[in-house]
Amino acid sequence: MGSVYNILIVNTIGSVDDLIEKKQEIILKIKEYRRIKFMKYASLSNLEEDILEHIELENGSQPPKEQHVYELMPGYVRFVQNRDYSSDVHLTYIPISKRNHLCSISDIMMDKYGDAGAIRYGIVGAFNVALFKIIPKNFYEIEYIRDFLSQKKIKDLLYLSSQASTRPSLNEKTFIGIKMPLLSKDILFKYQESMENILNIELKIKNEIEKLKQIKQHLLNKYF
Predict the structure, then answer these.
(1) Domains in the chain and their CATH numbers?
(2) pTM of the predicted model, to two decimals?
(3) DSSP single-letter state for residue 48
(4) How confident is the model at residue 58 (pLDDT cuts 50, 70, 90)?
């Protein structure tokens, strides 16, 4: 009976893994859809402008290590680090403070160090000094700018620029000279509405993946 029960648990975990994989494949398809859609819209442009005319950059903060805790407590907020976007292994929390710099689930974040130029989003909390928050100046350009900065050629350009400094990192100067194709306000409004809906679907799927990972971890902790 025990061996049959163990097989059932193993099969259940395997089914959870399959669901996670399928949902991750959907997210990859969403990203590819957005990439193609952006290229199609950007091709309509016959004028470019410096990206810094359209965004502001917000730096994160770094509270002392002794303020870090590793379980959520009243009066604390998640401390978002760039490694958190690929793993939940190092969850960290810091005291709620006016000195914190906050990010929402949909804010456009970017790595300053390490994988400099990589676009991140999907976590709520107070972000650290290894991340920028990219703040579009016009709300109707948010998703267009997200997709512009998500391009491989832009990421590669920013990464190479970051390597030119004594301590490899991004700053506002590394964005100078990056040109973004301009579109009419009407087209940008349509793009924003369409891609915002796609973003919400992606975030919903990511949330489902996190819940499935929690279920898997619970099963592993309980039975193995």
Answers:
(1) 1-44+183-223 (1.10.287), 47-181 (3.90.220.20)
(2) 0.92
(3) E
(4) very high
